[in-house]
Write a structure and sequence with these properties.
Layout (H helix, E strand, L loop, with lengths): L1 H7 L6 H39 L5 H12 L3 H13 L14 H8 L28
Length: 136
């Protein structure tokens, strides 16, 4: 059985197989990039559209209503707006072919800096029913 396996590996030295390896590898890499890029373009397009329409309705109301109607989280819409705001021209995105939506969000978008928040207590006045403990 090992002899048969060794014989089947002889084709690895042939030009047609080397070409197959190059073609398949390139197709997979390009396909993965195209999929990641399409998602980034979609977020950018949505962010641009929200910015275009924000003069009609306050942006927070617009994003919240979009989220409810489309069943897509408000966080995704806010990321879309932030991506468009930071890179109105997608050719200026950092990362080259290694760029992913996750990298854009976690590394490059403005977020509050970790450790920056110094929690301050906030006193809230809440009225609660004595019997059922429901908030009134």
């Amino acid at each position: 059985m090992t002899t048969k396996l060794a014989k089947t590996r002889d084709f690895e030295k042939e030009d047609w197989f080397k070409s197959l390896v190059d073609d398949c590898g390139s197709a997979m890499v390009e396909g993965e990039f195209a999929a990641r890029w399409a998602l980034i373009e979609a977020y950018h397009s949505v962010g641009r559209r929200i910015r275009v329409e924000e003069d009609r309705v306050p942006i927070t109301d617009l994003v919240q209503t979009l989220a409810v109607r489309t069943k897509i989280s408000t966080r995704k819409y806010w990321y879309a707006v932030q991506i468009y705001d930071k890179w109105p021209n997608l050719s200026r995105l950092p990362g080259g072919k290694e760029v992913t939506l996750n990298k854009l969000i976690t590394r490059y978008l403005p977020e509050k800096e970790k450790g920056e928040c110094k929690h301050e207590p906030m006193i809230l006045e809440i009225t609660i029913c004595k019997k059922c403990r429901m908030r009134l």
